[in-house]
Fold this protein.
Amino acid sequence: KGHGMIGNIYSMGLALQALGATSKFYAPREWDCAQAFSVVYGHNYQQPMAIAQVLPALVGKSYLEAAGLDCAANTGTSQSLQLPLTPELGTTGVHRGMAAAAQSHDGPRGTVPGTHAAVLAAPITVSYSIINKLQGSHFDYTISVSVPGGSTLLKVLQVAEKEKPNIFSFQTEQTSWGPMVISIHGLAANSDDRTYWQFLSSGDALQEGVGTYKPQDGEHIQAVFSTY
């Protein structure tokens, strides 16, 4: 149903490792691994945690095999750990993410290679709504903000808060997967109540966090106070 997606893009790494390590448990049923790996190849992974989980699967390994590694016998460790360049991988997915990360050290974002002149991205307009119909005093607020093209959703939230701090104030908590929004408009998520802030676009839950997701011009993002 997910066209190769297992859970969401964050769970793919461990899911691929588990399926690769336990094939004898679902044999003779065939698993269409190519479909799942195409999802991974097409995604630009940025968080170190996500990359660390998906890389073993890409080389046909799993964390379960780490205990059996003989590091002393590997004289060419750095070379042996390089991800093989195959036609299927090319420069997509993880490689593209790594290339982008490497290029980011060449100059500030938005600069042209070989020059020092910054090229500012054209601004885009994003609609942002915060909705609570679950607890306390219900609210539904919407704002339209302008941010540079290529900005993350976190930037949209920051601009909205700057323009109307009494309405769009928010708090984040740093996690190994990046910043996670834990409170909006003074309403905080609570694990005891199994509540959280869910971000959607066109009614579909975002597959990335606010620190990596990049809205498009004219997109409408909704933050909905939800339960799980």
Remarks:
- Helices lie at 12-21, 23-26, 33-41, 48-58, 77-80, 93-103, 153-163, 165-168.
- The domain at 123-227 is CATH 2.170.130.30 (Ferric Hydroxamate Uptake Protein; Chain A, domain 1).
- The chain is about 30% helix and 25% strand.
- The chain has two domains: 11-65, 123-227.
